[in-house]
Aminotransferase (Lactobacillus nasalidis), 391 residues
Amino acid sequence: MVDLTQHFKKGVAEVKTSAILNFAKYSSQYADIVKFTVGEPDFNTPDHIKTAAIKGIVDNHSHYAPSNGTAGLREAAADFLARRYDMHYAPSEIIATNGATEAIYTVMSAIINPGDVMVLPTPIFPLYIADAALEKAEVVQIDTSKTGFKLTPDQLQAAVDEYGDRLRILVMNYPTNPTGVMYSQEELDALAEVIKDRPTFVLCDEIYSELNYEQEHASMAKSLRKQAIVLNGVSKSWAMTGYRIGIMAAPQELTDQLAKVHQFITTTEPTPMQDAAEEAFRNGDRDAAEMKAAFKERRDYLYQALSDIGFDVIKPQGAFYIWAKIPEGLNQNDAEFVYELADQVHVGVCAGSWFAKGGQGWLRFSYATALDEIKEGVKRIKKFVEENTHD
């Protein structure tokens, strides 16, 4: 009998199931688990956005939208990028996607040939690595744990020197998942100079752009527009993860090519959900600001509480994650540590090693959950540390 599992695309064998989702499923066996795991806002979608989706259904927006998205959504997204970040794209340069996830896959599928190099500053969300493996790219992880969890021009220059014109994609996610680190515009400008006018695309994943606590949002697309593909969306800023609407913006000549791949991956996105996303981009600035204020309060509490317990904590400048080093005297194997924490005190956090190089010995805490839950989780973590610390 033929074993058909041996005849999948070769890259599939290199893709592992998500350790984050596997652990979330495992820890859910405890009914009282306090979850600092999945990055999903605990807020409800604002009422005026829900109303827009309902109106779309009532108005019989039940047919295929244009593959690149409704005209209203693309116009609203272009206005949002210009109004909020001084990033200027025509509506025709924007594609509505099935979340940032589909956008990432579309970019990888459209650009990468086998053997091309993708550079990732790590620690980073592992999705990019899986998508690149499917396209048989060579993934180069640059460990930033010794450089403040930021990619430096020298590190990028070393990659250019080694891989030359094979360096096809640089992935830049900021504010960064899992560390919450943000780059300044000057830092991004310096990185852009290294690859300017080279055959290298920059994938600017800016899905957390509205969650910047200490500074104005910066974008590498401002310093390298012709080579940049910008991803954004409504999931994190307006608690719309289930609506599955992202946006992808790039110069027209790039958008035209990306659109060819996008239309065959997903055809188009649900029309009423695009109506809701249009409303978020047009009239949701206050909602996003209110959610950011709540996240900042949670960040400040969790940062101080974990520091007091003995964690070495990176104070996040954005997103809703805290990156903390396991205290000395505890199990330094982060992948084992998180299961011990879940089993003993019913608290779920993510192991740093799940986020590639530089994450070993670290933990990611998502504070996209209610403050009362965070306080209960901290109380349990403190108990765990006191009971398990050894000399």
